[in-house]
Amino acid sequence: MKLNGIICRYIGSWMDQLSEEVQVQTDDDANDWKDDEIAETMALETIRTLVNIGVRLVCIDFDSTFVDIHTSGEWTQTPEVLETHVRSYFRHLCPLLAGKSQMSMAIVTFSSQCSLIESVLRLCFDPIVADKIIVRCNDDSWSIQNAQAEKFTGIQAHHLDLERHSKVPYVISAALQANESQQTDPANYFLLHNKITSTDTLLIDDCPDNIAMASQSGIPSIHFDLATFRTRMLSMDKNEPERRRQLKLAKALSRRLQQPAKVICSSPKTRKCSQRTPIAFFTPSPMTKLKVSSRLGRPKSKRVTKFRILPERVAIKQVEDDSSISVPSTLSWNAD
């Protein structure tokens, strides 16, 4: 029973390492995004997935994505009021992204109220986190060239939609700044010559049109839909099915260990190995090398040879006793 308890505790710790957070239902619901505990769990799942697939830049839309309302670029109230509409999911995700030196994040939006968005970010996060968030609004503070777009996407510029009605130029401009910030960080010494490209970027947006145009430009994107976002995010990690399989196996093993000890500790019956008769190897007798007749074609057995030779030996002894008879030195006989 003590061994059973130790194994149960070991399996329990293994399950905790596999899950890494509180398990929630697979089907997302709008109410789940308001639950702070579930939002934190989803943020942990997201950061694990992003690390596994090698994402270095996460671009997040603002209206109806980062916040749960659409400002239409005409917000007239204070930033404090808008800050209350920030989703709990992103409140947990952004600090996790800021803790990764090889990852950057950006807010990309068609809104021109850049100062408003920056004020909301400072209200939500600590200065160390807010300062790491790149903001790209529809203003004159940034611009990109065709050569920069081609180098980022690997696609010729005349095939790209670089107008401001697409999120593609916003993402490219954010990546250019993220490259500069990552290269100045001593922790990214081995990434100095590996600049962020479209394959290292992920766009999260609630608009299907923005998702489609970004995907056509070679930028991985995910549609922010409350009902399917978590499933889509986890499906990007090819190792997630195997991780869930291991977790399911751990649960099944834990249930098995909770059964009575006599069932667990019972060992299978050993099969009795049938003893085989050892193969005997015999050395041929020297007596089989006696002269034989061609009629038989095979040597006599030891027993037959013994009875044939014995009378002749007796006769030879008798002859030796008689000195008047000469005996040949070699005796040969022929079989009948």
From TrEMBL:
Keywords attached to this entry: ATP-binding, Nucleotide-binding
One function term, GO molecular function aspect: ATP binding
UniProt superkingdom: Eukaryota
Name of protein: ATP-binding Cassette (ABC) superfamily
Species of the source: Thraustotheca clavata
